[in-house]
Amino acid sequence: MAQIYKIYMNQSALVLADFIPKNLTNTQTIDQQYFDFEKLFKQSKDNESPVTYFIHAEKPKEIFNLIKKRVKLIRASGGLVKNGQGRYLFIHRLGKWDLPKGKVDEGESMKRAAVREVEEECGIKVDYLGQKIMTTYHAYLMKGDIIVKKTNWYEMGVNKVPKLKPQLEEDITEALWLGKEKFSKIRKNTYPLIEDILDAAE
């Protein structure tokens, strides 16, 4: 079975796979022998446009696991929420369109954290928790250290069309319901990993 792993870094991404994916854009191939994740992450900060760094390896999972051992891993969960009219919930946070998510508390399950974060960040009650859509990995700097955030994303549903109340203390300035025909509005100003989730929903 084909293996592929992706870690988002700023607006760029590192893709590890045992095959050559067809849909990669602006690709820069990296030799596995000379691969240094920390150097690559620092390099990605200076990219003027998104770059897909690609490593073709027989055992991509081994490289992926080595990266996770070298950095601090944080677990988070979030949701793609559909209301009774078939529209989806989006939030505007720190100048970008996003989906509600947050860190998993100690002893808390990923599913429970996903529901809690959506409810807290948008002031609604989740009526239905569905399948996991995907797991994403996102690298960023915190106090000089590279952190990799592992986020599980779940399908969710709410009855009718509840009023949204954005959690201002979490820097969420707006929350709204949008139909699939308006996803292009989100894509113009969001993160690459959010685009991947929207691709899975469409």
Structural commentary:
The protein is α/β, with parallel strands linked by helices. The chain is 23% helix and 39% strand. The protein is built from 5 helices and 11 strands, in the order βββαβαββββαβββαα. Strands 3-4-2-1-9-10-5-8 form an 8-stranded mixed beta sheet, with helices on both faces. Strands 7-6-11 form a 3-stranded antiparallel beta sheet. A hairpin with a 2-residue loop joins strand 9 and strand 10. It starts with a strand and ends with a helix.
Question: Which class best fits the helix and strand makeup?
Answer: alpha/beta
The percent range for helix content is 10-25%
- Basic shape: globular
Strand order of the largest sheet: 3-4-2-1-9-10-5-8
Arithmetic mean of pLDDT: 96
Number of DSSP helices?
Answer: 5
Describe the main β-sheet briefly.
8 strands, mixed
Annotation, overall tally of beta strands: 11
β-sheet strand percentage? 35-45%
Order of helices and strands: EEEHEHEEEEHEEEHH
Query: What does the radius of gyration come to?
Result: 17 Å
Distance between the termini: 25 Å
Low-confidence stretches: none
Write the layout of secondary structure elements.
Blueprint: E1 4-9, E2 12-17, E3 27-29, H1 37-44, E4 52-56, H2 60-70, E5 72-82, E6 88-93, E7 96-98, E8 101-103, H3 110-122, E9 128-142, E10 145-157, E11 172-178, H4 183-187, H5 192-201
Give short descriptive properties of this protein.
202 residues, alpha/beta, 23% helix
Give me a quick take on this structure:
The chain is 23% helix and 39% strand. The protein contains five helices and eleven strands, in the order βββαβαββββαβββαα.
